[in-house]
Specification:
Elements: E1 2-15, H1 25-33, H2 35-44, E2 47-60, E3 64-68, H3 75-82, E4 90-95, E5 99-102, H4 115-125, H5 130-144, H6 159-172, E6 177-180, H7 189-204, E7 208-212, H8 216-222, E8 225-230, E9 233-239, H9 240-252, E10 257-259, E11 265-266, E12 274-280, E13 296-319, E14 324-329, H10 330-333, E15 338-350, E16 358-368, E17 371-383
Helix pairs in contact: 4-5, 5-6, 6-7
Amino acid sequence: MNAISVEGVSKRYRIGRRHDRYRTIRGAIAGAAAGLLHRREAAMGGEMIWALRDISLNVEQGDVLGIVGPNGAGKTTLLKILSRITYPTEGRVRLRGRVGSLLEVGTGFHPELTGRENIFLNGAILGMRRREIREKFDQIVDFAEIGRFIDTPVKRYSSGMYVRLAFAVAAHLEPEILLVDEVLAVGDVSFQRKCIGKMSDVARGGRTVLFVSHNMASVDSLCPRAVLLEGGRITAEGRTREVIQRYLGGVGAGSGELNLLETGARSPGSRRVLRRLRLTDSSGKVVPHAVPGEDITFEIDGESAELLSGAALAIRINTAFGQRIATCHSRYQSEETVSLEGAFRVRCTMRNCRLMPGPYTLMLVLTADAGMVDQIDALPFEVVESDVYGTGKMLPGRCGYYLPEVSWDFQRGRGGS
């Protein structure tokens, strides 16, 4: 039996035009000052864009479905429609069971209420009785690890506390359908593992999970099936690993230059300091990929309005499924201590690249003495085949991720017992 049926769903938005339902004095003054521009926009009607186009999808009860795709593909819009936060322009959705959603940090929380009050509020929204919520209350608080702050208004919570409580509520109040967007990156590694484990428990309990993430390792481990959204349309559907490989194969074929304000998954709290990433070869030419046996340079442009004392940049190289392969880190590999302010450029050259051909992803982490400044994950990085050993042959992909520098010497007539 289908827990979720999506039939021909499309969603259209108007951009470039304001729609103020609630007027304030400040808004009225600003509106008067910009009246001429607004009248022109009204005459033009604004630009219409389709965030989703003709989406049809069936998810059976107890399925765990991953949804992957680039930024702006329509993933969050689809979950908002399923959560009834917004409604489709065309098509219809049928849901069988209560829906719990975790789409943004603190979704559904009232900032003036305490953590305790928000737990009961969210349970009531899900249609649960007060007795049912009480039975789960201690489990929720223990899982979220915020016992000392449970009677503090959530407006005073950090983003990490917000998401821990929000996930704990969504997962423990037992909705039949759980929708999870890219929010788990807020927590630390141990909490992310707890969340993945809890979602596995939810799935084994027969409930339905839709999971949106840029972390391909999490999608691969949690979801037997996945769909790929691109440009508001489903372009692939099937076994998770095959869908991920198709997605990464598409994003890996680039120009060698990425706009970091538009590409990748930025962690909440990031200051959007890192602006552009280029791959260049030994001659300084921008190249779309790395070649085994040759140097590759990561050139990162950024801009900071404030002084970043003790700045350091890490470039983490991961497999397509999130396994760490190597890390380039200025704090450990350079003796220079730097401070950054205004526009800046950082170059990191990896000598004699020894990675096996295939798709990889990069994570950029900029830190300073005060802590994390900017973090971006899921940046495509590709290594292409090369006759690195000069034999006319290439090691097959099953041989690992690293190409060792080796020499062989066969001596006849020696050895044996």
